[in-house]
Amino acid sequence: MPDDPFAWYRRLRENDPVHYHASAGMWFLTRYEDVQLVLQGRSFSAALGQRLRRRGTPLPLSMLNSDPPDHARLRAPAAKVFAARAVERRRDGVRAVVDAIVPELDDRDELDLLGQFARPLSSRVLAELLDVPVDERERFERLADEASANLDPLAGPDALAAALAAAEALRAAFATYLETPRSRSELGILDALGEECTRAGLARDELLTMLNLLVIGGYEPLANLVANALAALLADPEQLRVLRSDPSLIGSAVEELLRYEAPVPVAARAPREKVAIGGKDIGAAEPVVVFLAAANHDPSVFAHPERLDLRRRPNPHLAFGAGAHFCLGAPLARLVCREAILAILDRFPNLSVAGALEWRPSLVPRGLRALPVRTG
Ligand code: HEM
């Protein structure tokens, strides 16, 4: 990835918004209008788009890499459990996880808010959500971490091989958790999800694939959402002051932080038949990468897109995608991010970044290597 992806997106959007990247053999789309069209129209296939990503072996069929009618069948049982209202009922459980981690950060002058806060937060939320036994949590975090390379289209062969092995190990672990009766956590959805899947006639294998997807699709994006959001806030003292003086802005603040620094900057699709976009013909099954992060900075939709404006309204960002594959975890990710930011600002009234920030070279997630901060 270029050092400054936003400058690169701007150049592409202004000069060649439907760009054929010859060495990658892929189309890159950077205009809001085009990205939305690809994600919401019926001409593009997610199944084809995911299959065309560089990978030795195909991923098992899940809602992420399927089209109608499979997609609705695979998503519907989980959609009930992850619906906004169902997630809001888990607010106390999420707050309890945040409140358990924040005190662990006490009494240190310097902290890494990614490694010591956002990552443990993401893995504990997912572990509780998926009823991972307490004595398995460390292993779960390691496997979630390794399996996440499955998300990154730029991951090298070694990382991908390790990611596939980790995904297999996660799958085997979930098969055991499902069969082991035990008291479930306050946040836990494992039994409810299992019941919904049985009722909808999904096979056991399909449930295990779904659980894997929840970990792989959730862990890195959630950790990086929280860290990217805190980094963007700390880089803008004026906006930080606005939020500190009016915490009721947290809802629109999180939307703006999602827009500003989306942790999942791309989605992959391919057209079923030849289509014309922006005066270019895209052939059937040719890989198309839509840059959600570029669309989120398109000045034709967002005035002064490079400016962080926590009160921005409307804010129709595409950080969670759009259309049928709109992020299933969005209500949960929003809730966790809101609670996390409020808790950190409350606990540390004098927070500032300690040193230059370095971004990881991966495409997905867009994330920092660390978020070093001074607390006093
Ligand atoms: C609680 C954590 C999360 C979980 C469990 C989760 C889960 C999922 C799942 C299962 C899908 C596939 C939905 C489908 O194809 O029908 C999905 C899609 C997506 N998620 Fe999330 N997600 C989480 C957090 C995030 C975060 C923080 C972001 C970034 C802001 C994000 C961005 C996306 C995007 C862009 C898609 C669409 C992919 C596409 O259209 O190809 N997710 N998520």
Describe this structure in words.
With 376 residues, the chain is an alpha+beta fold. A hairpin with a 4-residue loop joins strand 1 (18-21) and strand 2. It contains 15 helices and ten strands. The protein has one domain (5-374): Orthogonal Bundle (Cytochrome p450), CATH 1.10.630. The relative contact order is 0.19. It starts with a helix and ends with a strand. The strands form three sheets. A five-stranded mixed β-sheet has the order 1-2-8-5-3, sandwiched between helices. The protein has a three-stranded antiparallel β-sheet with strand order 4-10-9. A two-stranded antiparallel ribbon has the order 6-7. Helices cover 50% and strands 9% of the residues. The model has no long low-confidence stretch (mean pLDDT 94). Protoporphyrin IX containing FE binds next to helix 11 and helix 15.
